[in-house]
Design brief:
five-stranded antiparallel sheet, three-stranded antiparallel sheet, about 0% helix
Length: about 90
């Protein structure tokens, strides 16, 4: 089971929602098979962390490029809101 719910918007685009009560232990390091473009639609108190880098605060409207096979994870801080992202795969 994944720590998010997901809606497929098109063949290469989906919207993911991470709820405020998601267990932080479920937000594990992972890597994807394809390049991704991630846009933050809603959320506060969330971070994106790439392997061997400091976490980056996710901000509504910002876009992040996640290359295929790069280790990364999202981090939820205390008092965070729900996180909604739109993901386009290339």
């Amino acid at each position: 089971m994944y720590p998010f719910s997901e809606v497929q918007l098109s063949s290469n685009c989906r919207r993911r929602t991470f709820e405020v009560d998601v267990n932080a232990e479920e937000l594990t390091w992972h890597r994807d098979a394809v390049d991704r473009r991630v846009e933050v639609i809603e959320g506060s108190g969330w971070y994106l962390q790439y392997d061997n880098e400091l976490p980056i605060s996710l901000k509504v409207g910002d876009v992040y490029q996640i290359p295929a096979a790069v280790w990364h994870r999202v981090i939820r801080r205390q008092n965070s809101g729900k996180l909604i992202v739109e993901i386009i795969e290339f």
